[in-house]
Hints:
- By secondary structure, the chain is mainly alpha-helical.
- The chain is 65% helix and 0% strand.
- It contains 6 helices and no strands.
- The longest helix is centred in the C-terminal third of the chain and has 25 residues.
Amino acid sequence: LLAIMYEGDLFEARQLIQKFRQKWEESFPGLCDYLDKNYFQSEKRMGAWMKAYRQDAFYAGMDTNNYVESWHNHLKMHFLKRQFKVRADRMVYLLSDVVVNYFKNEEFQAYVR
């Protein structure tokens, strides 16, 4: 499954899926049914986890959660001011108004430059 997930070529990734099915269908039909239902059901669904579908996306090189961890750290340090206990309504306000506007401004500034 890791080989399927990290394969960069779409044709090769599809070939790996077929090989996986051929190898495990007889021994583990429940696993193959589960994967077909939850992961291999559509191009959109496969695009969420397979590298082959992310080649043209701006986040194509982000194969780890380091970007998410960095963003979470930025959120805690800059927007929450190191407060560890934040009420839910305050968090919703920060995310929907303050953070969204901040990143819209950042994107605008990058566009203007």
